[in-house]
Amino acid sequence: MFRTRLISGIILVILAVIVVSTGGALLYGVTAVISLVGMFELYRVMGIEKKSLGLVGYLAGISYYGLLWFDGQKYVTLMAIAALMLLMTIYVFTFPHYGTEQVTVSFFGIFYLAVMLSYLYQVREMADGRYLVWLIFLSSWGCDTCAYCAGMLFGRHKLTPVLSPKKTIEGAVGGIIGAAVLGFIYASIFGHRMDEIGNPQAACAAACAIAAVISQIGDLAASAIKRNHNVKDYGHLIPGHGGVLDRFDSVIFTAPAIFFALTFLG
């Protein structure tokens, strides 16, 4: 199991480096596909992945990425309202075939997967995006690693005793500090190439710290959904890691966090 997880992890990192470094249409397309696969995994938990509620979610996700590509973000609110109206129409005319939770999750998935994950592409498209985009992974996977180490060394107090008994407050704080340090080090190396960031070291450290807090919320939120529905993994697409949601649960949250943190801090 460990060997499979290690090999697939290495392959995933290599692919991520290639896709993110290339950016542009490649990253846009891969991000859109990952979003749709993630929506499928989430909808499968609710039993709507192949039903009309799921179809509306997929179409809304595709529509959102179309708006993003053609600079039509001003129509996102209209798209969201139209999707909600269509979902409610299906709900009332098929009542009681679908439960309220299924309708809610269908709408929730549009923003949770399509909109939030799209900020991976949007950060890459920023002025200094070729350097700033890596902060998403530093604050996500870096936080996970630092939190694990800090928790093993200093962990005493449970963070969420019922949801994730092994996570500690000390580990969470260590993850935030570790992510901030990684952001500072990264900016110390590449900051001179960031033309649009006033104080790269301070901005990157602060952005990573903010994203690290949100990253842990994203990780716990994905776990909570699985616990509520007695699901071990969202899928088996990535050997040893589970599904897209199992691997990218924290990235989903750190991508928009980094985007808006840098927008205000830069």
Automatic annotation (TrEMBL):
Enzyme category, top tier: transferase
Pathway per its UniProt entry is: Phospholipid metabolism; CDP-diacylglycerol biosynthesis; CDP-diacylglycerol from sn-glycerol 3-phosphate: step 3/3; Lipid metabolism
Superkingdom assignment = Bacteria
Its main localization is membrane
User: Where is this protein localized, as stated in its record?
Assistant: Cell membrane
Q: What is its EC number?
A: 2.7.7.41
Q: How does it sit in the membrane?
A: Multi-pass membrane protein
The protein's GO terms of the molecular function aspect are: phosphatidate cytidylyltransferase activity
* One annotated Gene Ontology cellular component of this protein: plasma membrane
Record field: catalytic activity: a 1,2-diacyl-sn-glycero-3-phosphate + CTP + H(+) = a CDP-1,2-diacyl-sn-glycerol + diphosphate
The similarity comment for this entry is: Belongs to the CDS family.
What protein name does the entry list? Answer: Phosphatidate cytidylyltransferase
Please name the source species: Clostridium symbiosum (strain WAL-14163)
